[in-house]
TrEMBL record:
Pfam family, one: VCPO_N
Species assigned in the record: Phenylobacterium kunshanense
Domain of life from the UniProt record: Bacteria
Cleaved signal peptide residues: none
Domain Vanadium chloroperoxidase N-terminal: start-end pairs: 7-115
Cross-referenced InterPro entries: Br/Cl_peroxidase_C, PAP2/HPO_sf, V-haloperoxidase, VCPO_N
Name listed for the protein in its UniProt record: Vanadium chloroperoxidase N-terminal domain-containing protein
Length: 469
């Protein structure tokens, strides 16, 4: 293993473990769903981050130190290589998160000087997070008598085990950054999110009815591409959004010449941001408990309703069955929150723009505008959903599509609205209307705020383990 590749190497191993965890589709294995996946990926990359911190002598910048986590990390022995310390941390953390997939993991450096230091770092992190609430009620039954607007089972899969509510208590899992716990150890702080705007509901119902149905209807081929491209809804062999966004980040840093310390710092930040995004988004999902279009369009009593309406549903990739709607409330969109947090971290950590991504830049794309390209943020990416190998619902091989983005704001917008074109979200689940641009409505403002807070956490005294460009 080359020293210049260790962080990206172990990120690749982590993404492969996650992919294998979803070889049977959404039901997953050890880290089912986007919430547990985001937590697992944050723990692994924090272990790698702290391995770099301890090896470089920047112990004060380690996550273990910033959070005051007890540990028994031994002194770094003479001659310990960065590769060995990082490998010890990565192997230990990945095996702890994915023990069923640990067989093929390369531990050839286990006899190297410094490897035990990495092992001790990962064990301290895994032990600390083992008490964070991750194992409390992953699924719960649907409410027996939901009221109007309240989330309930997808009518197309009413008796499916997959339609139990995912993560009703995930909002109580300890956040990775500024977690505040009450006397019972429960989370008491989340980034603020305004209620969903009922005044926008009629227009947005018509939009998702016409653009997100099983039949293409008003949905253009490009809109369908957008919906499928950002899918990763637990499909067989693909996994869930945190894996997708790590792939995007890998593509963005390709060729930038970042050092190992910079890569370790960046991937820790973006995975921590997504883990906190899952905690905050799921807190608000069950606070507002809004139904999805699969229910709302069918139960609408005005002329805008359609009692027979069926959503396009999540991409039925590699034999994922049915017109499936995710089994948790709509508002806010997890996809929108994850994606906004990721791109905000990338913007701030890589200093590709003047300050954070503002919501106005994201909304500009929804108004039919094409803002000027941001040269330092342009990138192209091929989604596993459209890679020329994944299979569509009819068994055909999907066409390979390489999409170019001219700015991170464009990617944030497209990722958010993709869910409307699948018929699984209302538009305000992701982004506010232009009239509400100043209000924290939807997953995009929530994710952008989380990205900023994550960046601040890693830069807090005594600072980061590297100077990102």
């Amino acid at each position: 293993m080359e020293a210049t590749m260790s962080v990206l190497y172990w990120n690749c191993v982590l993404l492969e473990a996650s992919r294998r965890d979803f070889t049977k589709g959404f039901v997953g294995g050890q880290q089912p769903g986007p919430i547990r996946t985001s937590r697992a990926m944050a723990i692994v990359h924090l272990a790698i981050h702290d391995a770099v911190a301890f090896h470089s002598g920047s112990v004060g910048s380690a996550y273990l130190t910033k959070k005051g986590i007890p540990h028994a990390v031994p002194p770094l022995p003479a001659g310990a290589t960065l590769d060995a310390v990082v490998a010890g941390a990565a192997v230990t953390a990945i095996r702890a998160m994915y023990p069923n997939h640990s067989g093929p993991i390369d531990d050839s450096l286990s006899n190297e000087t410094g490897y035990p230091v990495g092992v001790a770092i990962a064990r301290a992190l895994v032990d600390y997070r083992s008490r964070d609430g991750w194992d409390v009620m992953l699924h719960d039954d649907q409410l027996p008598m939901p009221g109007h607007f309240e989330h309930r089972a997808d009518p197309h899969q009413p008796g499916e085990p997959g339609q139990r509510r995912l993560g009703p208590k995930w909002g109580k899992v300890w956040r990775f950054t500024d977690s505040v716990l009450d006397a019972d150890g429960h989370e008491t702080h989340h980034e603020h999110l305004d209620p969903w705007p009922q005044s926008d509901y009629p227009a947005q119902l018509r939009e998702v009815r016409d653009h997100g149905g099983a039949q293409r209807g008003a949905r253009s081929a490009e809109q369908e591409r957008i919906g499928v491209y950002w899918g990763y809804d637990g499909a067989n062999g693909l996994g869930v959004p945190p894996r997708l966004y790590n792939q995007v980040a890998r593509r963005i840093v390709d060729g930038k010449g970042l050092t190992e310390a910079q890569l370790a710092d960046l991937f820790a930040r973006l995975n921590v941001a997504m883990a906190d995004a899952a905690i905050d988004a799921w807190h608000w999902k069950y606070h507002y408990n809004l139904w999805r279009p699969a229910v709302g369009v069918r139960l609408e009593t005005s002329a805008d309703g359609d009692p027979f309406w069926c959503p396009h549903g999540i991409p039925r990739t590699n034999n994922t069955p049915g017109h499936y709607t995710p089994d948790f409330p709509a508002y806010p969109s997890g996809h929108a929150t994850f994606g906004a947090a990721l791109f905000q971290v990338l913007r701030l950590a890589l200093a590709t723009g003047n300050g954070p991504i503002p919501i106005a830049d994201v909304l500009a794309f929804g108004g039919g505008e094409k803002p000027a390209a941001a040269p330092s943020e342009t990138f192209s990416f091929v989604s596993d959903e459209l890679d020329g190998a994944s299979l569509d619902a009819d068994g055909s091989v999907r066409t390979r599509v390489e999409k170019r983005f001219d700015s991170f704001a464009e990617a944030v917008w497209e990722n958010s609205v993709s869910r409307v074109y699948l018929g699984v979200h209302w538009r305000f689940d992701g982004i506010p209307s232009p009239d509400d641009a100043a209000s924290p409505i939807g997953g995009v403002p929530l994710g952008l705020a989380i990205g900023e807070k994550t960046n601040d956490f890693f830069n807090a005294v005594p600072g980061a383990i590297s100077d990102l460009p």
